[in-house]
Amino acid sequence: MALALVLAGAAASVPGLAAPQEPSAQAPTVGRIIVMVDGRPGDPGLLDLIPFRTGDAYAPRLVDQAVKQIFKTGLFADITVTKGGEGPVDLTFDLVRKVFINAVRFRGPRVSALRLSQALTVLRPGAYLQEDRIPEAVEQVRAGLRQEGYFDAVVVCDVHKKAAATAVLVFRILDWKTFRIGGLEVEWKAEIPEQSVLKKMRTKVGQLYVPSRLAADLQALSARLDAAGYPRAEVRLAGESFDEESRRADLRLEIVPNEKIVITVTGAKVPLRLITPIWEERVFDPWGLSEGEARILNHLRRKGFLFATVKSRVERGPNELRIIHEVTPGDKTKIIGFDFRGNTAFSSLDLRTRLALRENVPIFSLLSYDKIFTIPIELSNFYKQNGFADVQIKLDFIKVPAGMRAVFDIAEGLRTTVESIRVEGTSLAAADAVRRDLVSREGGPYFPPNVQRDVGQIETFYLNSGIRGTEVSARVERGSGTAVTLIYEITEGAPVSIQDVFITGNLTTRNRVIRRELRVKKGDKADYARIQESKRRLERLGIFSEIGLDEVQTGPSEEVVIATVREGEKNYTGVGLGFESLNPVVGPVSDWLDFRPRGTLEYLRSNVFGLGAQAGVLGQLSTIERRAVLSWNQPYFLGLTMPTTALAWAEREKRTGFTLDRIGVSLSAAKSLGRARLLLGSLSVTRTSLLDVDLNNLPPDIDRRFLPYSATLASVSMSWERRDDTLNPTRGWFGSAVVEIGVPVFGTEADYQKVFLKGQYFRPLTSFLNLGLTGRLGLGNGLSHLPERFFAGGSNTFRGEEFELLGPIDPTTLKPYGGEAVEIVNAELIWTIFPAWRELRLASFFDLGNVYESLKSFRPVDLEGAFGAGIRYRTPLGPVRIEIAWKLWGFDVQDHKGHPLIFLTIGNIF
User: Fold this and answer.
1) Which of 220, 420, 816, 885 lies 20 to 30 Å from 725, alpha-carbon distance?
2) What totals of helices (H) and strands (E) does the chain contain, helices first?
3) Nearest-angstrom CA–CA distance, 819 and 266
4) CB–CB of 885/897 below 8 Å?
5) Distances (CA, A) of 91 to 32, 53, 172, 678
6) Residue 140 contacts residue 119 (beta carbons within 8 Å)
7) What is the gyration radius of the CA atoms in the chain, in angstroms?
8) How far apart are CA 221 and CA 240, in angstroms?
9) Helices 211-227 and 134-147 meet at what angle, rounded to 10?
């Protein structure tokens, strides 16, 4: 930090900053105040950090105070104050912004930039440039080069400063040395054949010496010794010497295996991998034995051996440690139910419900019998949360003819309640407002952790009220009987308002785009919740890799908010390759294995023109469809916070009974209506042509001229999202309603109305079994063009039929022509096969559905049925599904009952 006061005029008449004096009655006043940043006029908001204005009495201490407040923002590296004139006194603040490191690059030998960047910690992209730390950064780069085999490197750091106070650091590697391994001496202290362990090392005599490669070899060597029974082996580089003239390096390794550890489990089959990690480090023998016994018992209990016992001991020999666990598994037990005894505060049904909600009671699964032994802990926590601090729970088993029943004996003890709550020390806030969000309630249970949560709630209340420096302490007073009084003593801080909001770090993003997301502005109270919401909104823009909102207090009741952002990558290119089959997975294998290639190419440019917008080009090519899409996404629509998407596309898609060519443009905007609710509106204009129509006998209300037609469409949809995961849901629900209207305006022909409703519900029945329900209903009027009609059938709708073949079929060509109504219901049960591998699951399903030719023929109970099963593997993009389905009954022309269909799909039923 530097501060200079430059005087113009009679220096003797101006007191120095080092010894400030109060202005006298004849002291000069302040004239013009000018703030310059990097030689240009600064943000007018910086004037708010200066504690005087034009016309105020001039005093050097006020200038000093202004400099300190500006420095507190953390935005500036240097400040110079120039004084001109004597009455009035003109003051010019020349500020030098801190330089933001935008990128770090390396020039020289072909060394991984990623590894060098990992070695560089003091000056990294996204941080402010500190030029006094450049020598330290150079040494870190030299150390990183040494690890890659470039010794004694000569490194120079160039700082390329750019506009907007940013810089690129370029580390140029001008010279270096490399050494070849001349000798590799291994000091071996074990009776293991040396070559059997060393032969896989990549570091060998004659090769270039790369310390990072040697470190990886030593780590792999340690792992091989671990697998050989030496988990405590010490493997290290004991010495290295260099011959500068011959560029030779001699290395000396030291390997100390220490004692061999042998673990033996008798009496039962237990995987040793459960126990070996315990003894990798030196541990207290009794603790290691106890931990091993616990893991063995948990394993056996999962297998149904609830009364297994383990006796353990340690035997020591020369350079060997033997861990012996003798297991008596007992009889395999079947638990047929459980009971509660001694409970009066809660009914047995309440306790069962509580445990089921927490998914910790899959009693009837042999794979999860160990969970029975965790129920006492769960029950104890539940009772304590309800005020029973002295509760004791004991697990017992009672033999019955069909097996065993687990019995939980509960000694509830006395319940402690909160008689009253007092809040003391409030003056800036109403006591009732402070009490409103407390977890503890009068008449409710006394639970000490809730009191600590209340302290945090009160502190958060004051932060959200713009008050800083509040201290809260809690006191508990015992009353008569089992009641207590909670007293929260508050030492209030001071109200703080936001003096200004400064933005830094943005290179191309316009300030107005960032300010639009900020929920706080100049003059607002320092509401902590709104500051955090501002950060979340900036994150949702998706254009910043790092975001920070810092509060800097500049006075007793004032602060500034510093929004620091770092822009992410602007360009994204994606390429996708895959295969598709033209034929359904039925009949001869040679038919449905007729796979054809398909590809996708995508380019996205984010933060276009610094507006937070995104432009994209997408191309798809396959034997079934061809598509080209131009897109423009922006976070606002006509100044409103409504993410908006404009699309222009051309496509050709091969459907089951026809092929369509379509071009179109659309504009859609989305509006969040609170948590989990989304409103979406869309306008589009399309031009559609039908080709290769393989339909001869169509109903009279379908246009059979197959001429190109235009459509102007308006649609509105509302969705409710309450699933825990949109791609791999296990609990929650989802609902949506879509209304689409074709309006015959601008010379377009389409005149129709459609409504489509969808609902999904997911619920875990046990820890290994999930239920999923999906229902869809579509109704339309005036659907005279084939592409606008409803179709169903296939892996994502009704799995008892091939793609689009559910519903009305042309009797001569056996191709579908869709309908004006559709109804689909899918029910699924999904099992976890292995608890340790929850991604792999089994599924069984039952589908109901139909497509109705006209709205008049819609009968909700006239549904076709199918059932099936499959295997699913969960991925971040949704589950990979392999399913086989059989149709149970139907009304179609073709008799598909009894013929299985096989589907391979990625994604859930949508």
Assistant:
1) 885
2) 13, 41
3) 68
4) no
5) 6, 11, 43, 53
6) yes
7) 37
8) 19
9) 60
Sign of CA dihedral 372, 373, 375, 378: negative
**What contacts 76, CB < 8 A, 6 or more positions away?**
37, 70, 95, 96, 97, 98
Low-confidence ranges of the chain (pLDDT < 70): 1-26, 163-164, 189-198, 356-370, 581-595, 835-836, 892-898, 910
Token pair for 378: 């769960």
Question: Mind listing the pLDDT tens digit for each residue in 813-847?
Answer: 999 999 999 999 999 999 888 766 778 899 999 99
| CA–CA distances in Å: residue 607 to residues 76, 182, 567, 618 | 27, 55, 9, 18
pLDDT in tens, 599-627: 999 999 999 999 999 999 999 998 888 99
**Helix axis angle, 375-385 to 348-357, nearest 10°:** 110
Task: State how far the alpha carbon of 107 is from the alpha carbons of 104, 312, 344, in Å.
Answer: 10, 61, 76
Query: 483 has which bridge partners?
Result: 417
Q: With contact defined as beta carbons under 8 Å apart, do 208 and 197 qualify? A: no
Which residues fall within 8 angstroms of residue 193, CB to CB, at 6 or more apart? Answer: none
The pTM of the full predicted model, rounded to 2 decimals, is: 0.77
Q: Collect all residues with Cβ–Cβ distance below 8 Å to 11 and sequence separation of at least 6.
A: none
Give the model confidence (pLDDT) of 478-490 as tens digits. 887 889 999 999 9
